[in-house]
């Protein structure tokens, strides 16, 4: 199938009728993004260690948090034990500051973002190729209590993670209102 046939099929599935104004219809806009190309990643996994955070230089220093997610594979080859992929993630700005404050080794998180590739030459003069997920959104995938046995609980030294209320929802820590990426 060609790309235009796929987009047309998506359009017909998502639209209610052809009488709609195609330029304003949400389904049409989604199809146009698919036609132009899409780079979207959704991951759920556990941090392999605490995030490594650095700040950019200059007048307005920006947080850059790097962490690795261990993402379980759905299928095992040759009846192996559980296997995982280790995905490098990088979060900028407020998302990086959030990761620094609240993410710890073992924390299960849900990350959405995009794949970005790059390269650099190391000290030995060898060109190294990189693939990272640039984080656009990140959130906890389970309550603090459910990951305490996986070395994901608070260990001291920095701000505490949100705690679960009696109604099954997590309480938002005091002072985080200014740091949330939404209003």
Question: Can you walk through the features of this model?
Answer:
It contains 3 helices and 6 strands. The chain is α+β, with helices and mostly antiparallel strands and 183 residues long. Strands 1-3-4-6-5 form a 5-stranded mixed β-barrel. Helix 1 runs antiparallel to helix 2. The longest helix has 12 residues. About 6% of the residues have low confidence.
Could you give a quick summary of the protein structure above?
By secondary structure, the chain is α+β, with helices and mostly antiparallel strands. The protein has helices at residues 3-14, 26-36, 94-102, and strands spanning 41-47, 52-55, 63-72, 84-92, 108-121, 127-140. The chain has a 5-stranded mixed barrel with strand order 1-3-4-6-5.
What descriptors fit this protein?
alpha+beta, five-stranded mixed β-barrel, 3 helices, 6 strands, 183 residues, 32% strand
Q: What can be said about the biggest beta sheet?
A: 5 strands, mixed, barrel
Please report the distance between the alpha carbons of the first and last residues. 42 Å
Gross morphology: globular
Which whole number gives the mean pLDDT? 77
Q: What is the count of DSSP helices, taking H or I runs of 4+ residues?
A: 3
Portion of residues in beta strands equals 25-35%
Secondary-structure class:
alpha+beta
Run of helices and strands: HHEEEEHEE
Low-pLDDT runs: 151-161
Q: Fraction of residues in helices?
A: 10-25%
Strand arrangement, major sheet: 1-3-4-6-5
Radius of gyration: 21 Å
Q: How many extended strands?
A: 6
């Amino acid at each position: 199938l060609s790309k235009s046939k796929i987009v047309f099929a998506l359009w017909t599935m998502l639209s209610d009728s052809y009488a709609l104004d195609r330029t304003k219809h949400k389904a049409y806009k989604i199809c146009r993004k698919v036609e132009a190309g899409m780079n979207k990643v959704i991951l759920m996994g556990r941090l392999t260690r605490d995030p490594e955070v650095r700040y950019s230089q200059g007048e307005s220093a920006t947080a850059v948090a790097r962490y690795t997610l261990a993402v379980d594979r759905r299928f095992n080859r040759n009846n192996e034990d559980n296997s995982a992929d280790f995905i490098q993630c990088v979060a900028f700005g407020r998302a990086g500051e959030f990761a620094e404050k609240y993410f710890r080794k073992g924390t299960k998180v849900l990350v959405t973002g995009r794949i970005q590739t790059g390269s650099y030459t190391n000290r030995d003069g060898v060109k190294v190729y990189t693939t990272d997920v640039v984080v656009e959104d990140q959130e906890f995938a389970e309550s603090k209590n459910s990951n305490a046995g996986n070395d994901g609980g608070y260990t001291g030294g920095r701000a505490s993670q949100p705690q679960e209320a009696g109604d099954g929802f997590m309480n938002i820590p005091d002072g985080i209102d200014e740091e949330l990426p939404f209003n």
